[in-house]
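Ligand: magnesium ion. Inputs:
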Amino acid sequence: MAALHAKVRPFKTLDLYPKRSGHPRTCARFRCSAAAPPRPRSYSVTILPGDGIGPEVVSVAKDILSVAGSHEGIEFRFREMPVGGAAIDSVGVPLPEETLAAAKESDAVLLGAIGGYKWDGNEKHLKPETGLLQLRAGLGVFANLRPAAVLPQLVDSSTLKKEVAEGVDIMVVRELTGGIYFGKPRGFGTNDKGDNTGFNTEVYSASEIDRIARVAFEVARKRRGKLCSVDKANVLEASMLWRKRVTMLASEFSDVQLSHMYVDNAAMQLIRDPKQFDTIVTNNIFGDILSDEASMLTGSIGMLPSASVSESGPGLFEPIHGSAPDIAGQDKANPLATVLSAAMLLRYGLGEENAAKRIETAVMETLNRGFRTGDIISPRMTLVGCKRMGEEVLKSVDSQKALTASL
Ligand code: IPM
Ligand code: MG
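Predicted complex:
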């Protein structure tokens, strides 16, 4: 099994496979015989359905996680907690203390989506988005991995020409707990002309840059060995330090080819020639924007999962699409991004590679069998809703032959 940090680890780096409570169950009351079959591995997963289509897609992903896990001898203990607008309505805040506590105690967190028109006019501390940012900060999940791969089955869904889109396979590594999203000072004020102002601070420390850069180098070396660091070092001091630190770290990763690009150019190059990119590392706000752009190369944001991980605690796994309130509750949502997030949860959160592969293989098989939700429909394919898509993926999970450990 390939850990991202499988090679030499001269520094403390991200433990992407925390073996916390996911150990085989110990035999507390009975003596284990040496010949006993392997005990099931048991993990606790906090489920945060959230708002809009969140509950629908999470419910599908949870079932698939359970079944794929059971084929690998894994048991899950699920605990569902409110977050976002749902939490504002039920408890009065977007991230209740109990929700953060449950998330921190668990082995991994699966989130649906947050937000909706209903809460758009709320004050900042009562916005669903604030709950998500508090959750990321509370879990310390500073590294956000957002893959954007164009699947052969869906190449026609891309708005780019086939020859540009075909074969695109990018991983955006976004810094998630620093930069302008969290920097101080921030707020509203008045300038010396008496004009109202709003201000934020883009700030990064060397250690914050180093830790995200190390994750990105490690991700890149497990992929095609190319890392592009995106910044605005021609203008911003925070970016100048970013570029300096990333360049310094490159000597530790001589097997990775590092390049730098200004963010405006990167936005253009992603559309012009996306295949030039393998792994991209960037700050919080540039990562927010570029990962949405990269996702659209693939044709459907409804297909893309994400993983947010910390140095040692539980990771947060969520689809990158939002809560889509316009189609919520209509059984139209594409659950595959959340299903694939469950696969990332298994791989990056629990180190359960085989179970992750089961889910990913089942998703590909389901697409090969022609099932499509509305966002990825094309001629001659079968249009299905969220639930049915989940049932078809489950059928594929169930029909898989045992995967060998070498897979
Ligand atoms: C994302 C979203 C969030 C962000 C919002 C909902 C706070 O756009 O996960 O990309 O800006 O990080
Ligand atoms: Mg975003």
